[in-house]
Structures are given as C-alpha cells and as structure tokens.
Amino acid sequence: MIKMVILVIIYTAILVYDVPKLKEWRGRTVFVYTLLMIIALYQSIIFVFDLEWPFLHTVFEAVFGNLANQLVEFLEVP
Asked: What is the domain range of residue 66?
C-alpha cells in the first residue's frame, strides 16, 4: 500500500510539472514523452503489485540476444 501511495505522489508531481509544458510541445516530443510515461507506469505496476510480468530487458534480450552473443564470440581473443 505504501508503494502505491508514494508512486501516486511522484506521478502527481510529475504531471503537475509537465502538463503545462506538454501544451507547448508538438509532435514527436509528445509522442516520446507519452511512450516513456507508459513504460514507467508499466514498470511501476509491476513494482507495486509484485507481478511476474516481463521487464523491458526481456524484450531486448529476445530481440537482440542471439546477435549480441555472436558479436561477443566474434570479439573474444583466442
């Protein structure tokens, strides 16, 4: 419960500070800001409710893991 209260306070402070600026921003800036807030909310929900949902690193590992391992093996000195 305390986690939720703290996150509500934090997100309220963020929105109070950013909403007036959001009205001035256009296009990509608003899109990127919204995307980052959605990611932050997703991570916050996982944190508050102790869910076993995948984190962002899981997605990157699934997409780039094989390529990264090949690159590391290529760069290793024998």
From this structure: 2-75
Among residues 32, 41, 42, 36, the alpha carbon closest in space to that of 11 is found at 41
Q: Under a CB-based contact definition with an 8 Å cutoff, are residues 53 and 46 in contact?
A: yes
Q: Please count the structural domains in the chain.
A: 1
pTM for this prediction: 0.67
pLDDT one digit per residue (tens) for the chain, 78 residues = 899 999 999 999 999 999 888 888 888 998 999 999 999 999 899 889 988 888 878 888 889 999 999 999 999 987
